[in-house]
Amino acid sequence: MGERRNDGLMALFFFVVGLEIKRELVVGELQDRRAAMLPALAALGGVVLPAVLFLLVVGGGPEARGWGVPLATDIAFAVGVLALLGSRIPAGVKLFLLSVAIVDDIIAVGIIAVAYTDSLEHGWLLAASAGLIVVAAMRRFGVASILLYVPVALFVWYATLHSGVHATIAGVVLGLMTPARPVSGRDVLGDLQHGLHPISAFLVVPLFALANAGVDLRGGALGDAAGSSVAWAIVVGLLVGKVVGIGGATWLALRLGIGTLPSDVPPRLVWGVAALAGIGFTVSLFIADLAYTDAVQVTQAKVGVFAASTTAAVIGSGLLVTLTRRSRG
């Protein structure tokens, strides 16, 4: 029951992520290939280097299965921390962070689908595909009522859950299939984002955190985590890997003339954005539960995620405030 609850919560979470991705791809920052190139390369650097560093720290064995834990950025928490800094931070910083995090999560979703999927049940997979075809047909005939899509979407999620492909993929695919432009005069995507984003941010994420983030630190668990290669690999991946990967890839791309930053974002602020991207939290906790079955390793991974995400929030905020002052000074 707990696993089904997690799958349901995260399918809704990733559906909202899918909506954000679709809007950015069709009418947002990522529709312009040149504008999209820089955050795409930055995100790629922020995925590859954390994975490499994680594997270098753990050195192989069953611990290596958690290589996906430090890859994803928690969009809600990273943007939330940025919002706390207020108007003192240029608006373009949020745009760049959001673009990087969205590409980052596209890669993370692909990794979940490939690396953390069990054996496939082809009958259920065909059923899920049939449900998606029904959704596409409804779109083709101009069905704009969101309520009519709900039972089909639930069927797609249920079939995907039993297919062996992780059910969160159903959420992303359904989000990407949502029309970004008005249907019969109705902004379906906008209505869904407006209605579901608060539920995802203020209900789904906290419920998931309460259900999964609890770490029993009794019995020397904290000391075990401090001496654990898994915990340290996650910390190094989310802190060093994200900062150097995103910051380095952005610096190199700008030097080569590939892509541009928003006009109000000096290049030095990228390092603050890169640090905030080390806030993995929700997605990292989710992948940790997929990667490990041993309770001790799960606890070690969660301690690493908490430590790294908290540190990333503090360092990223400090860098952005300090570097913004210097830029204006």
UniProtKB/TrEMBL annotation:
HAMAP family: NhaA (MF_01844). It catalyses: Na(+)(in) + 2 H(+)(out) = Na(+)(out) + 2 H(+)(in). It is found in: Cell inner membrane; Cell membrane. It is a multi-pass membrane protein. Its main location: membrane. Pfam families: Na_H_antiport_1. Keywords: Antiport, Cell membrane, Ion transport, Membrane, Sodium, Sodium transport, Transmembrane, Transmembrane helix, Transport. The gene is nhaA. This is Na(+)/H(+) antiporter NhaA. Na(+)/H(+) antiporter that extrudes sodium in exchange for external protons. The chain crosses the membrane at residues 40-61, 67-86, 95-116, 122-139, 146-176, 196-217, 229-254, 269-291, 303-323. Belongs to the NhaA Na(+)/H(+) (TC 2.A.33) antiporter family. Gene3D superfamilies: Na+/H+ antiporter like domain. The keyword Protein transport does not apply.
